[in-house]
UniProtKB/TrEMBL annotation:
It comes from Pseudoalteromonas fenneropenaei. This is dUTP diphosphatase. Keywords: Hydrolase. Its EC number is 3.6.1.23. Pfam families: dUTPase_2. One of its GO terms (molecular function) is dUTP diphosphatase activity. InterPro entries: dUTPase/dCTP_pyrophosphatase. It is an enzyme of class 3 (hydrolase). The keyword Hydrolase applies.
Amino acid sequence: MSANITKLTVMLEMQHAMNTKVHENWFEQGFEWYRAIWVECAEMLDHYGWKWWKKQTPDVEQVILELVDIFHFGLSLRIDGKTSFATLAEGLAAELAAPTQAQDFKATLELLAAAAVADKAFDAHAFAGCMAQIGMDLDDLYRGYVGKNTLNFFRQDHGYKDGSYIKVWDGKEDNEHLMDVVKALDTNHADFAKQVYAGLQARYPA
């Protein structure tokens, strides 16, 4: 199994685990993941900049975070409760390796949104095109995805629901601590997610 397929399999497993926290049989509930995709696409355009009547500079870091969020929804659309994660990962790897690109990032993003609106589907080819045009690779996606997913679990384990969770410590928000942790780790390590969690745990106030 290639490194990319392994990483995609891990992300599918993590997405299923997170969705199961919301509802045990979540893939039978008909949640509108496709709608979350096109709404996020619209929000991302504001971060990228689309207004021709004023000067705008793309907020690349925020765009990458939004793409990571969209991938959560895309994975959720692909999981059907029947097909194995390894098989799904192989299909996704093939699609991501064949990006569809329009004339610029904005137009490619519209291809991604169009598939979500018209077909209620996740267009991984267009998603890969967006990644390429914003300078993002699968390693960046994996680092961002596993980090965000692990942080969500960490929050839940440390009182997010009852309000006892501390979001800011040592002068930084938990998202900033997360970035520091993931930058210091090797994404190819088999226990990358566990290392991210342990890194957050080591920094979190006792």
